[in-house]
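Following the same procedure, backbone shapes were mapped to integers, yielding the entry below.
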Amino acid sequence: MPDRLLAKVEACYQQAEAFFHRRFTRPDVSFKLRGQKAGVAHLQENRLRFNPQLYRDNQDDFLRQTVPHEVAHLIAHQVFGGRIQPHGEEWQLIMRGVYELQPHRCHSYAVERRQGTRYIYRCGCPDQDFPFTAQRHALVGRGRRYICRRCRGPLTFTGEQRVE
């Protein structure tokens, strides 16, 4: 695990402790995150997971923005409790007040998307396809139902598949 990232997590905690005049329990930190997310904060477990590929590709911004973003989630949970919105005013207060950063919800890193099979679903709307991932298609197989937001009709599998 990169030492710079762990040092940044520690620096973020020290800033929060100075701001709130209290001690915070340090989280477990791992690099076991893939896909489009740069980082995830698991509030109940006091754990942070980071995406190693996005870290390698965007180190400076990752350390400047992503690490404080995820630490701010854990700090907000410990200070304000579990009934707050993930990117609500409490989290924004920490981003602005503690870390002096704009509270951006999402990163803008280039993410290489894997090709995958899409399962085509349709509703009653004309010319409207809904390409489902394999994971969502499997949920339908286990009984989950989806509806069209426009016509409120059920989405049904057409039998078609395509690679995207």
Remarks:
- The radius of gyration is 20 Å.
- Helices lie at 3-20, 52-57, 59-80, 89-98, 134-141.
